[in-house]
Amino acid sequence: MSNEDRRKQILSLISDEGYVSVTDLARSLFISEPTVRRDLAALEKEGSIRRTHGGASFIENGPNFWPLNMRNKVNLREKEYVGRLAAGLIKENDHIFIDTGSTDFCLAKALEPSMQLTVATNGLPIAMLLASQPTKTVECCGGFYDARDSAFYGEDTLEFIRKRRARYFFVSTGSMDAQYGASGFDSKGIASKHAFSENAETTVLLMDHTKEDKVSYYQVFTWDQIDILITDRRPGDELMEACRQHRVQVLYGPGE
Fold it and tell me: Which of 98, 99, 114, 200 could bond 169 through an S-S bridge, CB–CB 3.0 to 4.6 Å?
């Protein structure tokens, strides 16, 4: 196993548990404790985790606060599955909006390279990835650049979005709850999400199962603002009932 793969697994375990001891990490990954300590030191240097006595925990409130390149490493298999399901909705010559999150990036990776599409996004990595494909017409919003999210925000971003229309808007958030809908830990991207949603025929929420039954500080979307929910496994009964009541279509994978 490479250093990169091993550290991705460590991040995933910390994501699931919140705190994991060196001993438990070594036992789970069948590696030595000195190797675990070296990996934790490297991840702490990157800004991914905080080492504590005997183990490691999240910085601040978890992976939703991490830079995008770190969030891309957590629950990657689940996010890639969601991305593939979402890509199945898209047809040749569609116009689509894609938000800035790590699951949104997995959707961009899942798009067929030969498919003709027009894509608008405020996420720089998504724009760069798709712009390398000759069949894609890609527009990236301008505005204030946020390095942590690798994304553009602000009034210039909103003005750009308001002048465009799309069939789908694909978006991900930090949490999902049957009562409160979609929520997140950060407010700065909410205005652009709303602008994209208002100018799209269909808003598609992309969510891996670890975000289910959680409520974050900022509400992003009410249930009435969501048209389709895509996740990697069948949501729990409460969430399924909320989707039924609000006529939200649910697409999900087989889970584990």
Answer: 200
Question: Cα separation of 241 and 178, whole Å?
Answer: 8
Measure the CA–CA gap between 5 and 71, rounded to whole angstroms.
14
Tokens of 143: 């505005």
Number of CB atoms found within 10 A of residue 20's CB = 21
Question: Where would I find the beta strands (DSSP E) of 92-240?
Answer: 95-98, 117-121, 136-140, 144-146, 151-153, 166-172, 175-177, 181-184, 200-206, 218-221, 228-231
CB 61 within 8 A of CB 35: no
- Domains belonging to the chain, first-starting first, are 3-59 (1.10.10.10), 76-252 (3.40.50.1360)
Q: What is the CA radius of gyration of the chain?
A: 18
Instruction: Kindly give, in sequence order, each residue whose CB lies less than 8 Å from that of residue 6, ignoring residues fewer than 6 positions away.
Output: 29, 31, 35, 39
Residue pLDDT, tens place only, 142-165: 899 988 788 999 999 999 999 999
Helix (H) or strand (E) holding 76: helix 76-87
